Amino acid sequence: MSGTRRILIVGGGTAGWLAAAYLAKALAVSPRGATEITLLESPDIGIVGVGEGTFPTIRATLKFLGIDEREFLRETSATFKQGIRFADWLHAPDGDTRHVYVHPFEAPFQTDVGSLAPYWLAQEPRTRAPFAEAVTIQSRVADAGRGPKSAMDGNFAGPLAYAYHFDAVKLAALLSRHAMGAGVTHIADVVTRVDIAPDGMIAGVATRDHGTLQADLYIDCTGFRAELIGRALGEPVKSVRNHLFTDRAITAKLPYPRARGPLASYTLATAHEAGWIWDIGLADAHGVGCVYSSAHIDEARASDILHAYLGMQPGDVPTRTLSFEPGYRDRQWIGNCVALGLAGGFLEPLEATGIVMIEAGVAMIAEMFTHDGPVAAPARRFNALMRARYDNVGTFLKLHYCLSRRREPFWRDNADPGTWPEPLADLLEQWRYRPPGRFDFTLDTETFAFFNYQYILYGMDFGTTAPRLNHVPHGEDADRQFARIRGFGERATLELPPHRDLIEQIRGGH
After folding, report:
1. E strand or H helix at 212
2. Which end of the chain is flanked by fewer CB atoms within 10 Å, N or C?
């Protein structure tokens, strides 16, 4: 086939507009170019804007799109995210006693003695520093309320790894401006019918006001509705509820109790009896959500938990309840239709993997897209890679739950090995005798590296057997490295600006 290839993206939001902007840049869309991209968006469907988190990959994505970091921070009420602070996941609070650990984005320091994990394990458990604090400076920096960079650092650059918290509504608006500036056509209309050809391909998308729109490739970004991949093509969601139990979230967005107060630079994730609560700080408000399992508590109890966390009474703040089936579609590319974002799958909000999946999917579409030949050709490879990525993310998410010692039914069910994915059970058995390492994972289908697993394992007090002293022959060198990391962390907390000050400096700059 020759001539112009037409791509129709159905649905806006983060998934639709990120796909439009990315593909417009990657495929060099132009009025007389080889590719035309149209985004069809319903004017009647809103976007949830309670605050979202991202993974450090978003920096490379935004840079590729040509978006200036300062513009992004100003336009989306964004703040910096250096990881996640977990509270009460190991055990429930006991008076003033609470268990807390940090999962930072920064990789552990690599030294002349290799990984520091065995040397940390060999230390006295009662006196050693928490793992993340011992092997990186980021835990100390984030705990001190500092930002990951200074206002003088370059675009998407800084001494520490970081991502962002942002307002999803504002991000979609920013991405839409860049996408349309890159040549994407925007149509505001409502889908009334999806036509299927005799060969099972999509023949066209009928709209209320613009007739039937036709394309070579259709990208379904219609969220949980999955108008194309689900309703029209009938591809079901493969549930992973046997591993991951949460399926509801009650969300709220609140102003800060006082202006210019300290601003956390990590997501706060606080466990409760049947799930957890996220607390994401934006520049001018914070988004909070109570994630829970409807099989373990009802909506009324979840609402009480959320309002108790906020120190409010039900009705004091508007809330919204979201329902989802944890899982993904086994085939996310069928014929001339490919799903992105929630239309393809969603596991749960933990670790902010939703946007990572969009980034991975659209990058593969851009690379696999052919200007001649059948558009369905990459489907099998795309589906295999996305299945593996969802399965691997599910394994990582389950790790957060299965090590808990909480006694509520939700947590006891998570600690039952019968609910663990088989790969996780196998790895946990191996990790009883050694720390996670890079050869445990195939990088092209992974979102998280071996050190991400280390942070969760040892944050949750997993009992890897401590090596004998004669098996860690460079102990003195390792001790010097631990001391250096501690010194670097103390210095960084003095030199890096408070997170709130950093955001205000950047938003006020030009």
Report:
1. strand 212-213
2. C
Phi and psi angles of residue 184, each rounded to the nearest 5 degrees, phi first:
-75, 135
As annotated, the active-site residues are: 81
CA 222 to chain centre: 19
Tens digit of each residue's pLDDT (9 = 90 or more) over 276-286: 999 999 998 99
Model-level pTM?
0.95
- C-alpha 429/C-alpha 427 separation (Å) is 5
User: Distance of CA 165 to CAs 28, 133, 395, 438, Å?
Assistant: 29, 23, 24, 28
Question: Quick one: pLDDT at residue 160?
Answer: 97
Q: Please answer whether residues 103 and 132 qualify as being in contact, where contact means their C-beta atoms are separated by less than 8 angstroms.
A: yes
CB 161 within 8 A of CB 106: yes
Distance CA 439, CA 254 (A): 44
Show the tokens assigned to 285.
């408000």
CATH class label, 5-78+164-239+326-378:
alpha beta
Say which residues have a Cβ less than 8 Å from residue 258's Cβ, sequence separation at least 6.
Answer: none
| Rounded CA separation 69/62 (Å) | 8
CB 109 within 8 A of CB 135: yes
Domain assignments of the chain as residue spans, ordered by start: 5-78+164-239+326-378
Residue 27: partners with Cβ closer than 8 Å, 6 or more residues away:
33, 34, 35, 37, 366, 369
Residue with tokens 């949830």: 48
pLDDT digits (tens, 9 = 90+) for 113-147: 788 999 999 999 999 999 999 999 999 999 999 99
